[in-house]
Every structure is written in structure tokens, then in C-alpha cells.
């Protein structure tokens, strides 16, 4: 029985989430005749706006919120699991014991979507690359939808679905680990694979394996493009995997508005896939030149008091912070603001950052003391602060005209903020409070 048939049973949304996936799945299923139950351990008051929105959707029965417990599965026929729920969660065993699958919002979309699917995955840069490719498609006149892990559910945009449209999906390792191995993806871009989410996956090998499952989700005619320089993907031999060499004239990148050599590598992969799809080369190159990037990704703010501020708050790993430092340190003295909660205990990654040349580093949050010890052992002294705002103020106090302030935390936000966006908003609010010209 397909999802389009009316009169279905009860669907459970386990973990409503903060970026629309759970809400999108709930509304989609409610419109198809499912009763909806939401199971979440968050404070009910924080979920109230989303639940009010869901209750306004036409559909059967009352939308109920229940605590996270085994009883939440009673009477359920379909369970949509938030990707952040780890494989080690004890209730997943209860789910399986009741004969239920751990389904996802992205599953529902891929089963029903009538058009082409292009996927982007990797460790860093997924959102920027997916948005870059969506901009290229739009410039070529192709109807395009951008979704997946980027923070919006395409289940909310059914009025735009058509066989002629292309869905560009950013796919996380959490999503890929649970996707059924059904070939529904036409083509893909693999960004370099590093380290991330080891506590969720259990090991680096399991993390890489989750990413590599994308190769098994490609349709028979599909191709996945990757840089030969990636230590995981470069040596891999797969008939669907196309390796790109940096010197290839076929993917010569035009000048970009967005800074960073890593963005040029992302654009090289976009060019390769655009060529595979037969998109008009000049329109593709124009779209790449005009692409302005996404918020919180080396996002330069208006200068204040002779200083420049770059918001790279999306960085929750030292590797992505390293890309930002390599880009900015040759330009001017960089006052680097970092910290939060460490995701992985990889001291060597932080030691390598000390060699990239920041003029000073100002640490905040739960990991500040630990990171100061690592960086100082590598020869880079650091100031330690409890709060983000204190670290920002110290960085500014030590700066001079012409200096760059770089927010690139390299750590999770979950010690003090709900997510990286909230942390970025706090930093940007502080920057906005500064006067634009010297006070006389």
C-alpha cells in the first residue's frame, strides 16, 4: 500500500528536530491520512510552535506529544526517526522488537519524488557545494529544489514537484547510514572524507562506510565525482566513481566571490557534474562567479573600526577551521576565536592548527582549558574565557587596524547553545553592537 492511499494508521515522529525535517515528515504523512504522534524528550514549550503548525494541517485525529519511552510505540504502524538519534539508543531495540523500521524524512522524499536526484556528501562543505550546484541549475533554467541536511524539508514543497525538476540533496552520514539500499540517486558529489561523528558511528571506519553507502544508492547509469587527492576516495576503485585531477583543464574554475582554495575544489566538482549533465558551460561559469556562499561559512561582515570580521561559525571540527586559517592568515594578522564542546579527542588536529599562523587565539566554553593546553604545547599561547562574548571582546582588544577577527569554533555548540546557528547569531549580535567609526 503506497503512501498516497488514504485511511492509514498511526505514524510516530521520534524527535521533531529543529530544522524542519520532523515537522515536514509529520505534515506530509498527516496529509496522506496518517494519525500523528510525536515522541520527544525536549521541553514541551519549545515544541509548541511546531506542534501548533502541525495541528493546522488537514488530517485525521489529534496530534499528540508523548515522552520518549517504549510506550510511545504502542499502536504505531510507521516510525520516522530523527537522524541524530544514535544507533546505540536503547529504544531502537524496542522498535525492532515490534517489527518496525527506523524510517527517515529523507526516505519518504526519495520514495515519492518524481524528478532527478543529485546528492552531495563529505565531511566539510556539503551545504555550500549543494547550494552552489543548485545555483548552477537555476542559472541554466532547470527547476531545482535544494534540501536534505541543509535544513529544510522538501516534503513541504510538493506543489513544486515535477518530473522535469532536479532535487539537490545534502546527505549526512546519519541519513546515509539508515537509507535503504535502493538506487534512487542519479548522480553525486563526494567531498573529501575526514573525521566526524565518531561517537555516533562508533569508529572512523563506520563513519566512512556510512558515507560510501552513497555509491550503492546510485542508479545504474549514475556517477559520483570525487577529488583524487582524498585519501579515502582517491585509492578507491568503483565503476561509478569518477576521480578528478586538480590540473584538469575540463574543470578549470573561474574567479569566485567566495574565498578559500577549498571552495575552488568544491566548484571543480560542480563543474564536472554540470558537464556530465550537459549544462551550458558559460551559464555554469557565470553562476559560479556570482555565487555568494551561505551564511556562517567564511562570511565577511561589514568592517568595524578598521577591523574585519569573518563568521565561520559553521565549523565544528578543527579540519574546517584549518581551511579558514589557511585562507585568511596570509592576508592579515588573524585573531582566532574558538571553543565550545569537543566532538573528538584528536589533539593532533589542534596541534596542526597552531602552525597555520594565527596572531592570537581566544578560547571559550567547555573545551577552552583543554584546547589552551594543546595549543600552548605547540607554541601558540591562548586566552581562556567562559563565555563566547568574553573571547570576542578579548580578541578585539588585542587587535589593531587591518587585523581580521575569525570566529571558527572547531567544536560543537552544545555546551552553551542549541546549535551552531544560535552561536553565530550571538557573535554577530556582538559585532553589530560595535560602532562603525571611532568614538571621539
Give a written overview of the molecule.
- Helices cover 36% and strands 18% of the residues.
- The mean pLDDT is 94.
- It is of the alpha/beta class.
- A 6-stranded parallel β-sheet has the order 6-7-5-8-9-10, with helices on both faces. It has a 6-stranded mixed β-sheet with strand order 11-12-16-13-14-15, with helices on both faces. The chain has a 4-stranded parallel β-sheet with strand order 3-2-1-4, with helices on one face.
- The chain starts with 9 loop residues before the first strand and ends in a 7-residue tail after the last helix.
- Helix 1 links the parallel strand 1 and strand 2.
- The chain folds into 3 domains: 94 residues, Rossmann fold (3-Layer(aba) Sandwich); 185 residues, Mur-like, catalytic domain (UDP-N-acetylmuramoyl-L-alanine:D-glutamate ligase, 3-Layer(aba) Sandwich), CATH 3.40.1190.10; 135 residues, Mur ligase, C-terminal domain (Protein-Tyrosine Phosphatase, Chain A).
- The protein contains 15 helices and 16 strands.
Key features?
440 residues; alpha/beta; Rossmann fold; UDP-N-acetylmuramoyl-L-alanine:D-glutamate ligase; Protein-Tyrosine Phosphatase, Chain A; 3 domains; 6-stranded parallel beta sheet; 6-stranded mixed beta sheet; 15 helices; 36% helix; globular
